[in-house]
Amino acid sequence: MALSKVIWVTPTVGTAIYASGDQMGPAVEIPEALDNTSGAALIETIVVVDSAKQSAALELLFFRAAPTITSTDNNALDIADSEMVSKLVGRIAVPAAGYVSTNVNSDTTIRNIGLRVQGTAATRSLWVVLQSLGTPTYAAATDLKIGIGLTQD
Q1: Whole-angstrom distance between the N-terminal and C-terminal Cα of the chain?
Q2: What stretches of the chain show up as alpha helix (H) in DSSP?
Q3: 91 strand-pairing partners
Q4: Are 152 and 34 within 8 A, CB to CB?
Q5: What are the boundaries of each domain within the chain?
Q6: Facing residues of 38 across strands?
């Protein structure tokens, strides 16, 4: 029987202005994302809550194991070809046009993704790296919250 769940993570983002193409914080572990028998899951939805109301476009790069990243926060994202080939499971775009604002924050939901991910035998975790596609400036390191909707089978 398939198990559906949403796992929330809070990436640590910088508070200086990002440029398009910049890495946004370190890689974030998504614990217990994969089924404990098959080591697989299906990413169905992504929810982004932006407490700074920047509503900036970004991309989420998902990895089956912790990636070794050459770059650092607020610099052009740089991941070696070998890391991308051996660990990347997919990239999901979050367009700026999809955000809806309230008085103090904004949020967006990406639906019907259908990205099948297969982990490694060593862990049930996935990792996500954020890449800016805009020029946001966050007020606090915890301004972004990301919900990953998964189905494990």
Answers
A1: 7
A2: 81-87
A3: 61
A4: yes
A5: 3-152
A6: none
Position 24 scores a pLDDT of: 98
Query: Which uninterrupted H or E stretch holds 100?
Result: strand 100-101
117-137 residue pLDDT tens: 988 777 899 999 999 999 999
**What residues pair up with 47 in beta bridges, in sequence order?**
109, 147
Mean pLDDT value across the chain: 95
Q: How confident is the model at residue 1 (pLDDT cuts 50, 70, 90)?
A: low
Spell out the residues 6+ positions from residue 97 whose beta carbon is closer than 8 angstroms to its own.
none
Fold annotation for 3-152: Jelly Rolls (2.60.120)
Q: How far apart are CA 153 and CA 141, in angstroms?
A: 34
Give the pair of three-digit tokens for residue 39.
């080591």
Helices (H), 3-127: 81-87
Provide the token pair at 15.
């508070």
The model carries a pTM of 0.95
What residues pair up with 76 in beta bridges, in sequence order?
Answer: 22
